[in-house]
Write a structure and sequence with these properties.
The protein is an all-beta fold and 261 residues long. The strands form five sheets. Strands 5, 6, 7, 8 and 9 form a five-stranded antiparallel beta sheet that branches. Strands 17-18-21-20-19 form a five-stranded antiparallel beta sheet, with no helix packed on it. Strands 1-2-3-4 form a four-stranded antiparallel beta sheet, with no helix packed on it. The chain starts with 10 loop residues before the first strand and ends in a 6-residue tail after the last strand.
Length: 261
């Protein structure tokens, strides 16, 4: 069935996430924030939101968790059991977490949630950027374990476990990590981060992360495999010469279901 173009009186349109086999967006109608999606007939549908925000995490197969990382620091649960009639929950504070101006990664599986923020704090030579990543109980918002001084760029949680592509330490190192109640466990370290264009996605039972070297315009995969004690990590790299990589991409084999391979 063909649809005639429809003009929508919306602005500040931004993608949130893909959940329940549907893409969800946030927008404003006038000064009112709305959750935007297509209904069962393929028509635009809107649900009112209490605040406008562009940070969301898929919380299981049938839910979203919308997060506001500027004060007041709050989040809410959106039930997608009936994906054509989403139910927006009540916005509640996130205790024990300092508001951050720049949210870098938010992930949740409905049981736990990972939140990574960057904020500016006063320093001797002027403002300095401080990174903080925490693991939270997704029901109560209470912190699980201690905060980590890591910047997590991409994250994924499943089965009560959270994984991330992170940067931190002295000197700064780019790594794939698992962040749990006992702290951070490095799955694979890639040294100093000289990559850009970091992407992550779920492929069946796998969470995959890919990146490219700075200055590269394409990826030329030549797969090799390295196995960590608990997770299999596949690295694909190609070099134009012995000295400088033309490009490099990597895909993790971290199972999204929490199993190890």
């Amino acid at each position: 069935m063909a649809f005639a173009p429809q003009q929508l009186d919306l602005h500040d349109l931004a993608p949130l996430a893909v959940a329940g086999d549907k893409r969800w967006l946030v927008a404003r109608r006038g000064d009112k924030p709305v959750l935007l999606h297509l209904d069962g007939a393929g028509r635009p549908a809107e649900v009112a939101l209490p605040r406008y925000g562009e940070v969301a995490a898929q919380a299981g197969e049938q839910a979203l968790r919308l997060v506001w990382t500027t004060a007041p620091l709050e989040w809410l649960h959106i039930d997608l059991a009936d994906r054509d009639r989403p139910v927006v929950g009540v916005s509640t504070p996130i205790p024990g977490l300092k508001a951050g101006e720049y949210p870098k990664a938010v992930a949740s599986d409905g049981a736990v949630a990972l939140v990574s923020l960057v904020r500016d704090e006063p320093g001797v030579d002027g403002p300095r950027s401080v990174s903080e990543t925490v693991l939270l109980d997704a029901t109560t918002g209470q912190r699980i374990g201690e905060a980590a001084a890591l910047l997590v760029w991409r994250a994924h949680c499943h089965g009560g476990r959270c994984f991330g592509a992170a940067e931190g330490g002295t000197p700064s190192t780019f790594s794939l990590i698992e962040f749990g109640a006992g702290g951070v466990r490095t799955l694979e370290s890639f040294g100093a981060r000289d990559c850009s264009g970091l992407f992550a996605w779920v492929d069946k039972a796998q969470w995959r992360v890919a990146w490219a070297r700075r200055g590269s315009s394409k990826w030329l995969p030549s797969p090799t495999t390295a196995t960590t004690p608990a997770n299999s990590v596949r690295r694909n790299c190609a070099r134009s010469g012995a000295a400088s990589p033309a490009c490099c991409c990597g895909a993790t084999g971290i199972p999204s279901g929490g199993r190890t391979t």
